[in-house]
Amino acid sequence: MESDMRLRLGHVILAVTLVALIAAMICCAGCPKRPETVNVEGGGAGPATPSGGEGAAPSSESYVFIGISTGAEYWRAADAGLMDACEALGVTGDFRGPTTQDAQEQAEIMAQVIGMKPAGILIAPGRPDTLTPYINDAVEQGVPVICLDTDAPESDRIAYFGTDNYQAGRTGASILARLIQEVHPDDWAAGKTFKVAISSRPGQWNLDERVRGYEEYFSEEAPQIEVVQVFDDETLANRGEEKASAVLSAHPDLAGFAGVNAVSGLGIAAALKNADAVGKVQVVAMDGDEGILELIDEGVIQASVAQRQYWMSYLGAAYLYGLKHGVFTAPDGDGVDAEGEIPAEIDTTTVEVNKDNLDAFRTPSQGAKETMPEEFKAVIDQAKGA
Amino acid sequence: MPAEREPEPNAAADQEPAPSRQPRVGAALKTVLRQREIITVAIIIVTAFVFHLLTMSSEPGRWPSVFVQTSNLKSMLAPLAMTAIVAVGMLLVLICGGFDLSVGAVVALAGLVAGLTVKATGGNLFLTFAAGISVGVIVGLINGIVVTKFSVNPLIATLGMMSVARGLALAYVQKYGVVSGFPRNFLDFAWETHIWIKGGAIVLIAIAIAALGDVLLRNSRWLRQLYYIGGNQDAARLSGINVNLVRASTYVVCGALAALVGVFYAARYSEASAEAGVGMELQVIAACVIGGASLAGGQGTALGAVLGCTLMSIISNGLQTWGVKPAWQQVALGVVLIVAVTIDMFIARRRSAR
Fold first, then answer.
1. What is the pTM assigned to this prediction?
2. How is domain A62-163+308-349+364-383 classified at the CATH fold level?
């Protein structure tokens, strides 16, 4: 029948098209990569590098940074650090991550990225245990990995650059203690006890470390300060407000609040505004998101502990590049940073943001760029083999 | 269930002398007690009393309990107002037998748009709210069309829009960062004291929306159609109701209300981010169900939705003031939710069986 024949012809065309598509894909997968564009710039130690961005074709040498999530403002500075370093080096930088802090999702993304065979991977593992096998897999396949911001110490990553979360907590605690002492000098001198509460997400490893830093600092250096509550703000400003308000109701004589994730400060601030307790309760927040800066400016939050995510990824990219191009060697684990050896750990430290210096933090990378130590800046030049 | 009405007095009664005040008051009382919301009100009162006992303070000169302090109760109002407004919107969708999982994402996206608008216009509140709410209207329209015209399951359709809206918000924030540094008048509008409550504007708006929604759901022809559609969609269509139009409009209203909350959210917390409102959709659905809505549709009142939000707010605040550790707070909240809804269902079933 004619209609049957037409039907069969249509099916055949469809089948042939699909097979052709599949064949084309298989072919492409087997094709060699587009070779790196290399301009030879005279002699010199190590391989030459493409001139920075001027008319050179984009390099296929890429460094990928996988963040804990892509949604948080925090990672923008890290992204900026990566991009600035890659631009200076003439390579490609790529920032990826799950939209929420889902470590499983991050692991899947890591698996994909490994498949792309980048020149190096930088990762902030959401849960060290979950990501360790994937990091090891990458290293096994010849892709070096450096951990940033959060470490996976049991894995085969070659180095960790970041803020020690525990130290960040201790820094915050010292700031809060200082603020309370400044506001209540007589009571402090008389040995009175002061109550504080900490807004966190209990169970999130890096935040638990910060809380530990707060608690241990207080018990060791400022025993007059008592942490009465560590509460869950669910990384949401409105839930944080509700909880902070409840804590304030239960402890009307509360002297201080600490927030250990970037959103904590927002909820605390709203609770204080609501209860007309601005200035009566001292607040130390975390990181320098614009909202936090605004609240510092308004005087609702007194200070924030800002990390140097920009430095982390800047250094990470620079060292990985140097490793790939034979300028640096991986740390040999002897505890000594020899010449040309990548440091096994770099503490990028934290900085106190308060009313005096907050303008420098308005642009996520501005403050970090301006205050980057010379030896960090020098790493890029070393990596280029200059 | 539509609100029950008093049965008409029969003709024989007309011949009797005019009824004295006592029976009329008694009849009114009976009507109130017959309302399903009474169960939720009772649960709220009992829960509040429990927390009152648990947080009793032994210090002289202080309030008898931490929980029942004016300052504590007042502190719950503004966040509760935000949830309640979204809940009323969600209720309309639920009554029609649908779901809207995109409300949380709309809160974030509308907040971003409003934040950008208020900064660009130097504080024009009218344009800011218009811009923010239109985000919700657009998302609601898409939800409505996809669910009615393309007959996509509402759970899936709104889940998809949730992803799209959240993704757009994330895309913006990743490139340009969160939006902050709002003009003073925007912040003041959100924080000014009304009816002795700081940030009272949102509370007043919530009361107005809840009251309007409740009255319209009980009395207006347009909103009563929601119950018929929720009860039996085909029968509703056969009786001449434009089912698609009505259903779609519930998504639009829900989106608009979520967007309204999103604008206030940005002002209240001085920041518009991509992470606002995460998880709100499920909380709000739970609140509606506690208040008497059915996941199968055809049931629920605005008053019930607000009461459901209130109960959840009280439990959350009570557990925190009592000092329960965060992990156990989650367990407790879940247990109370299950118990409250079970009691609710049990009593309601017994009543309808009578």
1. 0.81
2. Rossmann fold (3.40.50)
